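Lab meeting minutes (informal)
Scribe: AK
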Amino acid sequence: MAEKKKTDIDLPFFKIREDEEGTFVKVGPIEVVEKTGQEAKVKFGPLRISDSGVKYEPALNGRLEGMAWATFFILIGCVWLFESMYDFNLRGFIPIGIGVIFLSLNYIRSRVGIEMSSFTIVLGLVAIVYGILERFFEDVELLPLLGIAVGVYLIFVFGREASK
């Protein structure tokens, strides 16, 4: 009976060693799976890497949105804490932060292969504009800005449909 070869993979921060059967290795967040008759797969967090390419778990978008919500609550808490401790008004920082969170969420979606939401892109841009206007001007109405945002969004949506 031929002796089975073991595969050792040396990565910069850790090493992967093959198990006794030679079919499964898991070190930290990385899981290497090789099934007979199927292509070898490497699971690294939410990513699935194989010979056919890199795929993401469908639940990744939900996790990203959850992290965006967590960032939102951290932002709110930090602004309120700073305002109460130092008796200083940070007018406009929350809308700017919300806009940055929306745009960052869509940037991350684009980097991992998830379709971006054009609606949250437009809302993110409107939130940043509103925050800047609120920071430097006393009275800024939100309703006209939301009307402009909905109009811009509809132009993009119908423009895409017309180009198909």
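Next up, CB showed the second protein from the same session:
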Amino acid sequence: MARGAPASEGLPPPDTDAVENGSDGPAIVRIKVSPGGTRPDVRILISEDEEGSSSMSSVFTLCNSAIGAGVLSLPYAFRKSGCVGCLILCLVLGACEAFTLYVLSKFAERYQAHTYSGLVRKALGRKLSASLSAILILYLWGSCIAYLVIIGDSFSPLIALGVGDESFLADRRFVITTIGMLLILPMCFPRELGALAWVSMAAVIGFMYTAIVIVIRGTEMVMERGDLHDVKLFRWSFDALFAVPIVVFGFNCHANVVTIFTELDKKPALLIGALPADPAEYAALPGSFAPRPRSHKMVGMLGVIISAITVIMLGYLMVGFSGYLAFPTSVEGNVLKSFPTHDILMQVARGVIGAVVTGHYPLNHHPARLAMEHLEQFAFGWKDISVAFSAVQSIIFIVTTIAVANVVTDLGAVLHMVGGTAASYMIFFLPGLLLINAAIVKRTASMANLAEEGQEGNGNATASSATSALESQEELAMSFLASSNEQGIKRVGLIYSPRKSWWAGMTFVVLSIVIFIITIVTAFVQ
């Protein structure tokens, strides 16, 4: 799909979406510009009755966006921080990441954004959006390399069982290259995530199978050993912090959440019966941070997020506890390597995990492609990016990840670094800025209204008395803001706003910085 021209040119973006407000919420208008043309020649109104992705398929897609290399390292995280310590870490970080998923979806609806980069561009400005695109590309590129490494490590031993260790068919590099070019490459060409729904469903089922096998084998080993002498509830050491970026990486599915929300049906099924079905009912919920969805679609997305994070959480805890209890002192970064190689169930689990990350690769490539196109539009001002050029970019992306995966065999340290830096930036830092920006917009709008009321009541004694209470500096600020069309961070900068969303956003920004520092320090300590 072609990208749009800059808004300053006065033309609608080619083959993009505009929004018209109907009686029951926004409807989407798709505008097409003929190749080389300067005026829109086709307008297609997407019917409000047109069905999007179902709630269940969205849960599968969101789960598959998170499930990947991180699940194999959860037992290692438990080993680092202890059973109860890592349990608390998973619950706290999982809840925080679920909240930021809701934040991204909420602002995607408010700003009519269809991608993460598009949301940041509309809310925070083009420069910050470009920085997100660059970080997103690096993060997803590194993640895809990790998935190819896992594919090689998973399938090579299985193939060796049939053809022998010396056969070139069992060579790790041959396996990675063949699967990458013949299977992964075709799955990366579709431009809508809905086309990969079947991959998502199969991947989640495969992940659950692997979790069950690890639980069974781990429980058997614990029963045979007969004691939990080496199991620690907490580990009070600096080394325990190494688990933080691993858990952050494990729950990360934020790169795709805006697209998943966009493709969700307008009135999706409510997956959680305890949630109110009517958006109006949320206004009466107690608590400062209770969700306030304004549409049926947002209510449905809330259920999708809670369901997906719950599934991911349960699966991760099953794998984490079982793997750690089975090997409390020796579990490796890839838990499957700790189990015997001759175990048939574990061999199947290795194959299943290989299949899971094979399906996960296209879901990482999708936002990476959008980010590359956004960077090209920002840097070169291109109006159109053809399907052929987009395909070439995809091929280059895949070939380079295959090349690196054939050389690098251990990406444990890289995953740790990527999870605590780039992932934390997307998960906590930018959603925090969005919350801060919303608070600033509300405050500056309120100040502008006060300034306008003060000007209108200049001759009135009561209004004059109220106006005299204002400081001269605040009057100048209000005068400036009243004349500004854009009153958020990208116009007035990072200023204080006495609102809960400002403090919530600042908390997430600080959290991302703390995680970044922890990641850098623990990487050098290790």
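CB comment: The two ends are 45 Å apart (CA to CA).
No objections, moving on.
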